[in-house]
Structure formats: C-alpha cells, structure tokens
Amino acid sequence: MLFSGFDLEEKRIINEVLQRKAKRVLIQLPEGLKKHGPQLAEILGRTGALPIISADPCYGACDVTVDEAKNLAIDLIVHFGHSKTDTQFTIPVIFIDAKATQSVSKVVKNASNYIEEWQRVGLVTTLQHARALEDAKVVLTEVGKEAIVADTGVLKYPGQVTGCNLHNVTAIVDQVDGFLFIGGGRFHALGVALSTTRPTIAANPYTGEVAFLKDEVQRVWRRRFAEIHEFRKAKRIGVIVGLKIGQKRLARAVQLKKLVEDSGKKATILVLREITENGLQQFPTLNAFINTACPRLALDNSFHKPVLTPREVLVAFDRLEWETLCREGWFESEI
Ligand code: SF4
C-alpha cells in the first residue's frame, strides 16, 4: 500500500499500460488525490510510457479530459476517484475507484446514537466507501435497525451517490425514516438532503464527526427561493452550456432558451469550460443565468446574479411547484 488511506491499484494500472502498449498516459485525479500524481507518474514511468498529469480541476466522471488527451496524442487516460458512466470516449479510459481503506464501523456506531427513533435507515455513500456499506449494515443490524441500500443499477455500486446522481436515494425514499450518508465533507451529504425531505445525517469516517444537515438544507432552500424570485424579474438571461464532456447539454439549453423567449424575455447561449463568478461578470447586460452544466454549481456557490438549475427555471415559470422541487430534488442530470 503506497498511498495512505486509499487503494490506487497501481499494479492493475501498470498491467493495463503494458498490455495496451500505451506510450503516453494521462493521469487525471480529483482535487483531494492530486497530491499523489507525481508518485503515480514515477511508478508508471517505469513501464517505459510517458505519464502526464492533468493539473486542471476535476470534480466528477463528467469531466474525463478527452479533448486535452487528443491534443497530446494520449493512448490511455487513467481517471481516479469516479466511476464509469454511459458516456462513450474516443480514447481508452480506465476508471480507478480510489477505495478508502478507512473503516466505517466506528462512525456508524456513533451515528446510531443520533437516530434512535429511526427504524429503517437508508444507507448511502460515495464510490470510495461503497464496499464498506456491508460493514455499516452489520453495525446497524446489531443495534436493532433495518438498513436499506438501494441498487438502481445506475451507478457502479448499490447505495452509491455522486454530487448529482441521487437515484439510490430517491428509489427508497418511501421505505426509510431517514438517510445515513457515510463519507468525508458535506458536498455529497448535502446532495442527499436536497433530493429528499427525509432527515439526513452525515457520518464522516475520517474525522468521526456525525451531523444532521437540517440547518444547511434550510439555508440552501432560502437562498434558492430568493434567487428564483430575482430571476422572475430579469429581462435578459444567459443560458450556460458546459464544455466538459458529461456536462454538455446544448439541446436542453436550446429548449430553455425558447422557454425564456416565449415568456417575453431575451436569452443568449454561453459556452464555458469553468463556470466562475469572474466569467459571468464579463456579461453585465445579462441579469440572470440558467446553468445546464453541473447542477451543483449554483447550489454550492454564491454568484452575484441568480444562477438557476433547469428545474428551478420550471418553478420560476410556474411549471413546477416549489414544494415538488424541494421534495424531489434540484437535479435532472444523469451524470
Ligand atoms: S455534474 Fe455531477 S458529477 Fe459532474 S461535477 Fe457536477 S455534481 Fe459532480
């Protein structure tokens, strides 16, 4: 085990490089794992291939860096930390789970003290801890709970969620008293909480911290409600199309442009790779934006003008009830 806390499957990668006779290999890592890039490159370099690290930000399997790989005449992309989606690639890509080696049993036992009144617990996690859900189930069963793990087949593992793919949450929402999310940080846990009105608790196996997400969810709901209200007053709208391979939804953007124009407002389509506050500020005549790319962007960041998800736009145009949005979630992406 060369990389503390994660299994980066270096032997498997070396075999793949040798078997495929790859001459140039692009290494793509999410932010938390980038620090291991140089060591991985050193190991891969021993095969005789030229390893190159992609240093750009990478937050999901929606962002496999195929265009850059083509520019660099890459033979193989090794993408860490996210699981394969339905997207077809023109360059071979291997996905490495980056399985966490940290045990989850202790934090799940601790979490069970916070959910005494729950009988049926929906268990969800990220790719890194997906294979530890069986251990979590055992702990919950020992304290008299029924652990329910959905297997919708849309992601690699039962109970797995991504930032915007919450099918393994919504599939069991009527069968559980609440959701227990296992994993580090708040990003995925908040996504779970935002896709259901059931209570959600986050258990962090790295820090041992356990937290209910109620206040954070209320804060996001209030901010989103205010932005939808502001959006209704806007006259000129920018409809954003992301350039990342799994975020490119031009047809959806064209539909939304028409919806905006049919309401008497003006709409312009913008394409961006990184959607940032600075990027949007370059368009002072636009009063609000619709983001058809990563749906978490507007939910997790504050922009100076309203930036709505497509489902929020439906609320703004009275085609979807606010209560339905809160109950069923903000995301329509299948990434
Ligand atoms: S589109 Fe989905 S998978 Fe991609 S970065 Fe956003 S939340 Fe993550």
First-to-last CA distance? 31 Å
CATH C-level label of the largest domain: Alpha Beta
Widest sheet: strand order?
Answer: 8-7-9-10-11
Please identify the structural class as seen in this structure.
alpha/beta
CATH superfamily of the largest domain: Diphthamide synthesis DPH1/DPH2 domain 3
CATH architecture of the largest domain: 3-Layer(aba) Sandwich
Uncertain segments of ≥5 residues (pLDDT<50)?
none
Largest sheet: 5 strands, mixed
Task: State the helix count.
Answer: 13
Bound ligands: iron/sulfur cluster
Q: In which range does the helix fraction lie?
A: 25-40%
User: Rg to the nearest angstrom?
Assistant: 21 Å
Give helix and strand order, one letter per element, not per position. EHEHEHEEEHEHEHEHEEHEHEHEHEHH
Mean pLDDT: 95
CATH-derived topology of the largest domain: Rossmann fold
Give the beta-strand count: 15
General shape? flat
Overall domain count: 3
Beta percentage is: 15-25%
